Structures are given as C-alpha cells and as structure tokens.
Amino acid sequence: MKLYDFHLAPNPRRVRIFLAEKSLAMVFEQVDIFAGKNREAWFIEKNPLGGLPVLEFDDGTYLAESVAICRYFEMSYPEPPLMGVGPRDCAFVEMWNRRMELELLGPVANVLQHTHPLFKDRVTQIPEFGAMRKEHGLKRMEWLDSILAQREFVAGDRFTIADITALAAIDLGQNLAGVKMPDEARHLKRWHTAVSSRPSAKA
User: Fold this and answer.
1) Which of 76, 97, 120 is the last residue in one of the domains?
2) pLDDT the model gives residue 118
3) What is d(CA 21, CA 198) in angstroms, rounded to the nearest whole number?
4) Among 94, 99, 98, 104, which residue's Cα sits nearest to residue 172?
C-alpha cells in the first residue's frame, strides 16, 4: 500500500497520526498541493475530487477521505482502539470527531483559504468571510475548553480520532491560519500540551 500525502495539510496529518498511534509503517508519496500537483491528470485519475490523502491498495484501487482511511486501518488493526469500543462508545467518538471537523477544523481551514497569501491565486478569497469564520473558530475553542474542563480527552477518558482531528485543527490555526488559542483557555492548552507530547504528533 501507499499513502499519497502532503506534509503541510491537516487531513493527511490526521491519517499519519492515526497510523503512528497504531505503530503501522506506510509508504508515503508527497503530492504538493501548493504546486497544483493534486490537480494534474495522473492524480485526478486516483481521486477525481483532487483531495488528499489517498490510500492506494496493492490491487490498484484507491480510497480517499481521511476518516474512511482511518476506518479501514481501525477495522484491520483494532488495537489500540481509536474510533471507539462497542456500539455506544463508537457512536460517541464519531459524534465528537464530527464536531471537531465541522466546528473547529472547518472554520480554521476557511480562515486560511480566505485570508492567507498562499491561497490568493488558488481561490476567490472573501476576507470578510474569513474574519467571520475566525470568530466562529475562536468561540468553538472556548466551547472546547469548557468540555476539556470536565475530562482528559475530547471524547472521554481515552485518546481517540476526535483528539487527532482537534489537534490538526488547533495546530493549523496556531501555525498558519492565525487562529490562536484564547489566553484564558487553560484546559484547552493543558490538553494541547499533553497530546502534542505524544510521539504520534510528530508524524
């Protein structure tokens, strides 16, 4: 198998962290999004939507979408469990992961796309929309801080894919999008320090 990856993008990073948590080795091939390599014909044949990551199987089939790829590896290598244990736990982990996608990673990515010079010639930027999404993302960080005041990890007492998605979102905000954790979000910062110290965070 091979994973088509781009080291600066948050969604491929989610899969890299997932694989690292499971101690799974993988062949990676970099596809430079900023150079438009993901829009070239050879890659569109693998994923018509042009998104990363994409998992290539040995039989020549391709699986796209981060969570779908993680689900494949979760089912193939269930330990340690990162997507829940049993019907109820799996459902709650999925709920929290989806919330991290929609309410945190999505807004931060919108800020990057609509305000950063990297995307000036790639999308029609609407700075006002970027500013609105930044405000939304900051409010969601405050909300997540209140959640993490009650427990160690996003979905409960165990590290899961929801933490991976949240970490990718927070780091994208901190490093590229200019959406910083609020100064008063001490529980969020405690969580961020803890999950960032895991070896997988460097994947």
Assistant:
1) 76
2) 87
3) 9
4) 104
